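Hi R.,

Here's the chain you asked about this morning:
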Amino acid sequence: MENHQKEVSSQTLKFSIINYIGAAIGIVSTLFIYPNNKEFLGIIRYIFDGAQILMAFFVFGTSQSLVNYFPRFKNSSNERNSFFSTTLFVVVINSMLFSVMFLLLANSLKHLFPAIRTFDYLGYSIVVGFSFAIMDISKRQASNYKKIAIPTLLERFSVKVFFPLIFLLLLGDYISVETGKLVYTLCFVILMLVALRYVIKVSRIQFRFRPKEVFNPSFRREYVQYSLFAFFSILGSLLAFKIDGIMVPNLIEGSNAMTANGTYSIGVVLAATLAIPAIGLYTIYSPIITELIAKDDISSLGKKYQEVSKLLFAIGGFLFSCIYLGVEDLFSILPTRENLMDTIPVILILSFNVVIDMTTSFNSHILLYSKYYRFNMIAIAILVLLNITLNIYFIKYLDLGIEGAAYATLISMTLYNSVKLVFIYTKYKIQPFTKKHLLLLISFVGSASLLYQIPATNSTLLDIVIKVGVFMLLNGFLIYKLRMIPALNDWLATFKIK
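And here is the predicted structure, written out as tokens:
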């Protein structure tokens, strides 16, 4: 048991380090490299988002089933091998069938809408989507053996390394845009093969295609039902959170559609960095939530609900306010300033959306791990419909462009979280907000509004230091006094003279 715990801790630490290093590389690339060719960035984002949606169809929930039903077969090497081999075979067959179906559909739509060029990238998305599918299966199987560091490295860190390299080759005129797309696609194929090779090694897989050995009639029904539920949950989530990357270049008319998508992508990447602390916390709290719900200890669940909300609101609101005060001045002194300035409205809108999402705490996790888990599918379905409708309205009819896409995400996500908050309060009588939230909100809004009005000096760096520095001192002190981040108070207490 002790060795098992050490292995889990070691993998978790590696997982966290990989994510933070990857995020740092992503921020540097987004600020200094990607703005130099936003059209190519928009094309790659379109291929990537399309591939993730296609992956859901290719996998069709089987990767979740691979984890869910693994305990049934872990004591028999033959059954383990048959289960994995059959799952892999199903993914390959699904990929072939859905690829043909989507290619035929795209060909028909291309004849109906010849002006839309985005259908030209479907082939790339299919290859990358298939690579994602095999990598996902490999990652899930590796997680069954508590080996998540290497798959995470391949899935996240490697992408953040090779994409900037491709971009630099393109900017240096060493490769063309067409070659860049091919190299990008080929990199995922290589990552797929490495991931598959790794999982074969760590789980000692011997391909054994004997489905009848594990898929008896009763289990087959259970497996199909669970996989179908997982598929709709994942597809709904992907459509909800990735659909804007597909809709932006299709709704914005003209030759600058992919450039607009690239600009929007920069805003998405930078805004998403605010959510990094939330990802780690949700990973830590997931087993705690499950245990409290299983014990029906709603009182303790409510306290954790508010504890995490306070922590994430303090971090998210603090960072967002610093971005609001300093982003324009910061971008103005960067070498890529001309291509970054038009991303500021998108960054601010999407960052504000992330803060709202963080402040509502782990509401999705409460639903997922409770008997009301089906409601989460309903909430995601509402989010998908809202997001698509609002994107069409803001981009197409109000002609707001990428800012319209950002507003669509903000409104739909706010309503999505509101629906979940109301539902959880109705069922459990718990909610994440406290009086400390209100005090800190007043401080954030008041101080940021006043500091924003300070006249500029002759030094942009001095302007950043004054505005952001004063805000950090004032609100950092308030966060400390309100104990919004208990770990911060405990850490500072170690420096006090006893």
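One quick note: Residues 109 and 193 are 33 Å apart (CA to CA).

Cheers,
M.
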